Amino acid sequence: MSQRKILQFSTGALLLLLPWFGGLVLGEVNKDFSNCLDFFYYKTPPQGVNAPGYQPICQRHKNQYRFASLYHHQHRTPLYSAYLLSPADGKRPSVAWMYEPQLAFSRANSEMEPFATPVDQNVIESQAEREDYRNSNFTKGHLNPSLHQKTKEDREATFTLTNIVPQRAGSNSGPWSTLENDMLRKFNSFCEGPMYVITGAMPYESGARWINNRVSVPEYMWSAYCCPSYKPNLPDHVQSFFPTYAAVGRNDPNSGEEIVPVNVKARASVRGYDVKRMSLETLEGILRQRLGMSIGLFHGQCQ
Question: What pTM, to 2 d.p., does this model score?
Fold first, then answer.
């Protein structure tokens, strides 16, 4: 058997075992987040995510860790990305979309890399690729958005498909974009230290929906922040936003309204993509019910 076939066979067999054993143990795709704990409050990743198939990724770009993602192999999307919010010091970068080599090859380069043409079959089998989104009627929705990252290199790192979920344009450029900008304003106006952010996706309760029969589409987006150090004597209208706050956004205008109601007066282009602000505890309750896991996002509720 040729060396290439042996590699393809070995990689394929390993990928089949990943959901049962929790992932690779080499490099930046690892069994845990031990190499990038600084992106989590109290150096503690979310607790209670115990289902098989999730792969921790310490997102590494230009020889530095930039943020962290928990990736689901079968869904080919992240459950969440965790990062430190730092307002961008420049424009959105023009950069090629990237992938995670170690999801495809266990001993590959530990840094994200731009997609090659043609895309290697092992890469296609292990994660989402650009073609999955072509003509899908979905945008590439950042969980860690580039506008929340200060340096050019940090912003570039957000353009990996392991940080992306299929997101409707009405959400991505509408109410969800408004939420991302609102978080920036709160950070700039009231935080006196770091703001830890975890943003994720919530699958359909009725079963997975797919683009290209490969990439899972979320029914909702969600986000939560932890700002443990903030200004004293907050104005009454912002006191409930600290030290934690959260939100859930609709990604399907036809979903029910039990989690996020619809504003029927919204303009047509964004109607049905509403975002509902809520307490951290309320979001965790929704995630527990929807994901079937008792999830705690921030150590000690950020207290």
Answer: 0.90
